[in-house]
Amino acid sequence: MSESDQPSTASERPAARSLNSLKMVWSYASRYPMQLLIAAVALSVAALSTLAIPWQFKQMVDSGFIAGGGDVSPHFRLFYVIVAIMALATATRFYFVSWLGERTVADIRQAVQKNLLTLAPGFFEENRPSEIASRMTADTAVIEQIVGSTVSIALRNLVMGIGGTIYLFTLSPKLTAGILIGIPIIVMPIVLMGRHLQNVSRVSQDRVADIGATVAEQLGAMKIVQVFGQQTREADRFSSAVESNFTTAKRRIRLRAIMTALVIGLLFSSITTLLWYGAIGVAEGSITGGTIAAFVLTGGLVAGAFGALTEVYGDLLRAAGAAERLNELLVERSSITAPVRPIALPSPPVGELEFRHVHFRYPTRPDAPALHDFSLRIAPRETVAIVGPSGAGKSTLFQLAARFYDPQDGAVLLDGVALPSADPAEVRSRIAMVPQETIIFAATARDNLRYGHWDATDDQLWFAARAANAEEFLRSLPHGLDTQMGEGGARLSGGQRQRIAIARALIRPAPLLLLDEATSALDAESERLVQNAVENLMQSRTTIVIAHRLATVRAADRIIVMDQGRIVEEGRHDDLVAADGLYARLAKLQFQD
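Below the sequence we write its predicted structure tokens.
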């Protein structure tokens, strides 16, 4: 897949210019104030106890080693106490910040997924689900690292840097002032290079998402890849995605390495220069040996703290890019929503469906109209078959009936209510559907069957399975209805998957039944049995059947023949054959075969 095929790239999005994207992460982490407080206290104690080591070392040198070899045992015992406090505080900090990282990421993942489930199918035509899944894994892993590790390291180093600087002032204001003079020189590379690093980090995350999307696509199509002998091509395509990610990662690493080298080099050079002057002060007797020893230790801690902050800043920029990508999914709103005051559908349900002068184009195919001035009324409990060549617009009728899309012109009505005026959830509660592409979840057979009616009893499940000619193979499964189906129903044949999908629709107590090529994957015998069962169940429902195989629609009350988004013929089987139009030509081709 070429770069231009990618639905969303960094160049197509506004680049984040600061760490503002992390506000979204903070909004989730701040839901746990007690854990935040404990982590902050433990972090502060750990940082300050670290700074207490140079202070205690100064006391020990000045009062013990230098002052005539006094007893230094109390100082060492205090060292043990400081180390114990530091260890306990560090462990506490680690636990609570790790807990916060895991909890925050879990909440973000749930929020993103909850919002994704509300979006209209059109969103997933424009954004690849595999790329979205990569955001849910790769990007959340970056945020987990930031919340559960990097931020606490940054805050600890900040506390140590500020606290250490204050302590340095108490030791030697003159030397410390010299350190502060160098701070603008150290900060300048961060400001100048930080923005560019963030943009590169965002692109790097996009490339990681491309890898995940490519893997998901190839593994999902493994049989096609192998049967057509395209392993080498797919391996090359994956290698291309990996190398693209590596090239972008090299740019990010190079920038961070340059930032780190500049900052640490400048910082430690200034510290070395100042310590040189400090050593001269010791020789002149203007400061004590303990003071210069504490200054050296504290200066090293401060230098290390500020040096680490440069690396942390790079991580924060990378997390900001990840947060921005996830926030795009969080703030996305569905184009299909319920009105503020929805009109209730009639009760009890009627099952009448009507299309009035509908014009429709798919958002991703604006130049290819799917329906032209389409009008059709389907009466309650009527069975209508929709036939026609591929691309005629047959499946589009189902998409509009379930209100996955709204037409650009015209109206679709269910039981006399225009769909945009009703709650989509109520509309869909009156629809049972068997889609053209069979969907089987990686769950048990029971869960797949009762997906259409979750409170169904086992007796109801078996009744639907029997009606769909699925009972025999379901009873032969190792654990019956509790048998795992595997991802996409990998343990089942194509016909078995389709019969489960039919049973799932039949068990749903809905007045409108939509069957899109419902028997296309069945052999002749199974098709006959399922067709008989479906015809019996159709008697109490309004049913729309889409079928290319005309033998399955002969018993329909009406047959609607579509071509290029319009109705070109309408009637019963015998009348349409006699009319010698499009239906007759399709029937002649099929029945001759």
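Residues 21-331 form a domain with the ABC transporter transmembrane region fold fold (CATH 1.20.1560.10).
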